[in-house]
Design brief:
The chain is mainly α and 139 residues long. The chain has five helices and no strands.
Length: 139
């Protein structure tokens, strides 16, 4: 177990890349949140919105939601209210963020549907396994 941890993300030459990639990912999510806040009509400064974005991002990691909705909206409502920006702006920002994230995933859905359609149109007969291949374990 120790060897796995030492050779994994905590390895001396690996963790800087992991930290960099994670930082870029968080920065992207924060940027989308800030754009969502502007689209939702919030005129708060970036200095006010940045801590709220971080709180909402932490809440989004809580796996108690229904189809991706729940903790993000609740935390945004609470955080925006606590910051004096209004519950409506918080919920609107969270909803716009959710819609923007959904729309960002649509190109992937198009690719999956296209692959499904191609498989459906050209059925390929399953290849029968020969006596050597049956029960063989492939690495």
């Amino acid at each position: 177990m120790v060897a796995v941890v030492q050779g994994g993300p905590l390895a001396r030459r690996v963790w800087p890349g992991v930290v960099l990639a994670s930082s870029v990912a968080v920065a992207g999510h924060v940027a989308v949140f800030l754009i969502a806040a502007r689209v939702a009509g919030s005129d708060a400064s970036l200095v006010e919105l940045l801590p709220l974005a971080m709180l909402v991002l932490v809440a989004m990691g809580v796996p108690t939601n229904v189809a991706g909705w729940g903790p993000r909206e609740g935390m945004a409502a609470w955080a925006f209210t606590a910051a004096g920006l209004g519950t409506a702006h918080g919920v609107a920002t969270a909803v716009v963020y959710g819609v923007m994230s959904f729309v960002a995933c649509l190109p992937g859905a198009v690719v999956l549907l296209g692959a499904w359609w191609l498989r459906r149109r050209s059925p390929v007969a399953p290849r029968s396994l020969g006596p050597v291949e049956e029960g063989a374990v492939h690495a």
